[in-house]
Design goal:
79% helix; 18 helices; MFS_dom; cell membrane; transmembrane helix; Putative MFS family arabinose efflux permease; mainly alpha; 0% strand; membrane
Length: 395
Amino acid sequence: MTTTSAAEPDAPARSHWAAVATVTVATFLVVTAEQLPIGLLTSVGSALSVSEGTAGLMVTLPSLVAAVAAPVVPVLAGRLDRRLLLIGLVALTALAGLASALAPTYPLLLAARAVVGVAIGGFWAVAGGLAVRLVPPAHVARATAVIFGGVGAANVFGVPIGAVIGELAGWRVAFGALGGLGLVALLALLAVLPPLTAAQPVGLRHLAEQLRNPGVRAGVVATFLVVLGHFAAYTYVSPVLQDLSGIGAQLVGPLLFGFGLAGIAGNFVAGAAVARRPHRTVLVIVTALALTVLLYPLAGNGPVGGIVLLAVWGLAFGGVSVSLQTWMIKAAPRAVEAASALWVAVFNLAIGLGSLVGGVIVNAVTLRGDLWAAGGLLALAGVAVWSARRIPGLR
């Protein structure tokens, strides 16, 4: 069942690949903006006299705000041209980066980070399903993979480069550079993004209708469990590599770089496969994730096992975003924006909760206990995906 109450405009007759590439640049910006503080926690904490734990709110807060903003921004935007909405959200990201660079106190810095959360949620609610507006149906899966390639590129290049800038020139310069990148993305969107008329505004009724769509509902549940399980474990991947696998601290950075490269590869492999067999592709990805995390306490006790499992983990998780977003497009082809808004809200909520749950388990039990729990959540996600095997359009 799919609802047509919030119908999408018809697919374009020709491809706008330049616009797809520009949205990818904007994706790179938004994900870098979300995760940039990860490499700056110590320097920000020292400069503004807060603990590293408190400084970590710079990462948690935007995720939670984005979870609220994802369904709210499309509703408030009404019939506003989505081109103007995307441009406005990218401009907001750039301004928030500059405000972060200039913030004299930590509360003001957190306020700027909350603005980033609004931009993240609104951006993904629109951009996640934008491929259907930019290319003909035959090319949607590939265009979606290209757009989500910006996520992997940000993890591999954006966050590490930001950390290097912060180390060499200071954390304020790193945030300022983010604002500069936002200006570049803004100009590119102005130059090549075509008008994207909203055929019918997304309302609260449309969001509620999508929760009655069995394909969307299964995708939302699977997304929540996958992201929750992944971040419950991955947030603590550094101590896992060092304490369980016996890998030196100096190798953690290069290994996480390799994790990101594997993720980029997984994104494009999944993008090609999900167009043909969406259900099977998502099931394979989630099963691979569950097995990898569950095997880590058993087979990741040495450097070789730890490195091999980390590479498989990166490859599998790299396919999560593009495959689940494509799932949503196929489950609600006439209500992509409403379904995407729900998906983004759940995704970001699960990021914040996953890190929180992982921390509680690590403190109360052990790193191994955290991996077992995360693997269990991923296994439950596999059950949710398997249960949707008979839904039309997802087979």
